[in-house]
């Protein structure tokens, strides 16, 4: 049975060429270190793209909400993602239905 007390987060990582990678995890600092290490647990799309910079993170709540938000953020344009990085309150405003009960 899944532990309901686990909080999921969404994060954005910038590669050395400026691309933004979107992911979800229960522990952003651990996951970022895994990506930086470039080992077996790192995302394939980030390997060899360092140095990496953690640009944005936000707690979402449930795994289901985090997955839905990740899908929506991955569909955003690069311009819109850059706006989210500059204004963290933009994401909950764009997708408020995914943050209900977890803000």
Name the shape in a single word: globular
Strand order of the largest sheet: 2-1-3
Bin the helical content: 25-40%
Radius of gyration: 14 Å
Low-confidence stretches: none
Overall average residue pLDDT: 90
Secondary-structure-derived class = alpha+beta
Second-tier CATH architecture: 3-Layer(aba) Sandwich
Treating each run of at least 4 consecutive H or I residues as one helix, how many helices? Answer: 4
CATH hierarchy, class: Alpha Beta
- β-strand number: 3
User: Approximately how much beta-strand content do the residues carry?
Assistant: 15-25%
Number of domains in the coordinates? Answer: 1
Summarize the structure in short:
The chain has 103 residues and is of the alpha+beta class.
How is this structure best described in words?
The chain has one domain: GIY-YIG endonuclease (3-Layer(aba) Sandwich). The two termini are about 25 Å apart. Strand 1 (about 10-15) and strand 2 form a beta hairpin. The chain is about 35% helix and about 20% strand. It has four helices and three strands; from the N terminus they run E-E-H-E-H-H-H. The mean pLDDT is about 90. It has helices at about 30-35, 65-75, 80-85, 90-95, and strands spanning about 10-15, 20-25, 55-60. The chain is globular, with a radius of gyration of 14 Å. A three-stranded antiparallel β-sheet has the order 2-1-3, sandwiched between helices. It is an alpha+beta fold and about 100 residues long.
